[in-house]
Specification:
By secondary structure, the chain is α/β, with parallel strands linked by helices. The protein has one domain: 4-Layer Sandwich (Purple Acid Phosphatase, chain A, domain 2), CATH 3.60.21.10. The chain is built from eight helices and twelve strands. It has helices at residues 4-11, 57-76, 98-104, 106-114, 127-130, 172-188, 194-212, 230-242; strands spanning 15-24, 33-37, 80-84, 118-120, 141-142, 144-149, 152-158, 254-261, 268-274, 277-283, 293-298, 301-307. The strands form two sheets. The chain has a seven-stranded mixed beta sheet, with helices on one face. A hairpin with a 2-residue loop joins β9 (268-274) and β10 (277-283). α2 runs parallel beside α4 (106-114). It is globular.
């Protein structure tokens, strides 16, 4: 398995640690070099396409990243794993079927196919599983993915909507959220930035409550929330380790310590001790609205990196600006589809 420093040397300065989000765990978490690509939200290149965000040069940066990975995959073969952790497509805003998106980004999908990418479903492309599973087709998507090290399952990969009350596509709250999203989606055709306006308002409310601990004054007396989903995932990892989930694993097979997610579009890496051991949460950020983060795991090493085009940013790319955080939810709208997906 390629080590972090060896990967950085091969990248020639194009991987830059994001906000010092790098640490070493107390045990091996993977047996492979694992690169996690977070939310992309591909559409048909229209004004609502949050990946391009009306900046075509963002595509050049992502293709540069994939071009770097292709020879690396040939060298490392099974020792390199690429995981796209959901919301590759933004189906709730799509004009038609997924073929229109695939036709708009043939280079992306072709390269990711050559990389043997593992796809985890997100709330914005959950319909790829929901509407076609009865036909025995999920287009290579899965709800979650597990990785092992030293004979134990150590790392869980899932999109992150499962921890989001308003976005959880497996609960009643997600049904309500889905209807709200349909309305927001229609509004975006009138004003493409309406999601940013609504998201900023929501974030202001959340910051106020978090700062003054309105909801949890006893549990969080310090007024600091290290990650909004931290408790959810630590509790989930503990349930897995205790063998109390619905998944068919015995406690002897499990030693989960790390959860890797996307969804929030806000990269973070946090560690928290509980019941005599350390747990970790790696939020990989996004490739939406100018984002270019990647979560990377290699043995004990964890980090969030940003991909910078060699030498300088592509023409027109400025330093990354504050990200528009989409508060929209998965529409759950049934989309017709013909033809293959990656």
């Amino acid at each position: 398995m390629l080590k972090f420093d060896e990967l950085l040397e091969k990248a020639g300065g194009r991987f830059q640690v994001f906000k010092n989000f790098r640490l070493q765990a107390d045990r091996n978490l993977t047996e492979k070099l694992t690169l996690c690509i977070p939310d992309i939200h591909l559409l048909e290149r229209g004004p609502n396409d949050d990946f391009l965000d009306r900046h075509p040069e963002y595509e050049e940066r992502f293709l540069d990243f994939l071009d770097f990975l292709l020879p690396l995959k040939k060298e490392e073969e099974e020792d390199l794993e690429i995981i796209q952790i959901g919301d590759m497509f933004d189906l709730w805003q799509a004009k038609g079927n997924t073929n229109m998106i695939a036709a708009a980004y043939p280079s992306f999908l072709g390269l990711m196919g050559k990389l043997k990418t593992i796809y985890v479903v997100g709330n914005h492309d959950v319909d790829l599983i929901r509407w076609y599973k009865d036909r025995g087709q999920t287009f290579g998507r899965r709800w979650r993915y597990l990785a092992s090290a030293e004979g134990k399952i150590r790392t869980l990969f899932e999109h992150g909507f499962q921890a989001d009350f308003a976005n959880n596509q497996e609960s009643w709250s997600g049904v309500i959220g889905r209807e709200i999203t349909k309305i927001v989606g229609m509004m975006e055709y009138i004003n493409p930035d309406i999601d940013a306006v609504l998201g900023s308002t929501w974030d202001s409310i959340v910051r106020a409550f978090s700062k003054y601990n309105v909801f949890t004054p006893v549990r969080d007396p310090q007024g600091f929330n290290p990650h909004e989903y931290l408790r959810f995932y630590i509790n989930l990892l503990e349930k897995y380790n205790q063998g109390t989930t619905l998944d068919h694993f015995g406690p002897e097979a499990l030693d989960l310590s790390l959860a890797v997610i996307g969804h929030t579009h806000m990269a973070r890496l946090v560690q928290m001790p509980k019941n005599g051991r350390n747990y970790y949460l790696l939020d990989c950020g996004s490739w939406v609205n100018g984002g270019h983060e990647i979560g990377i795991i290699a043995g004990k090493d964890l980090a969030v990196f940003q991909w910078e085009v060699k030498g300088k940013a592509p023409k027109g790319i400025k330093p990354t600006r504050p990200r528009r955080r989409k508060k929209s939810l998965s529409s759950g709208m049934k989309r017709k589809r013909t033809g293959p997906l990656p």
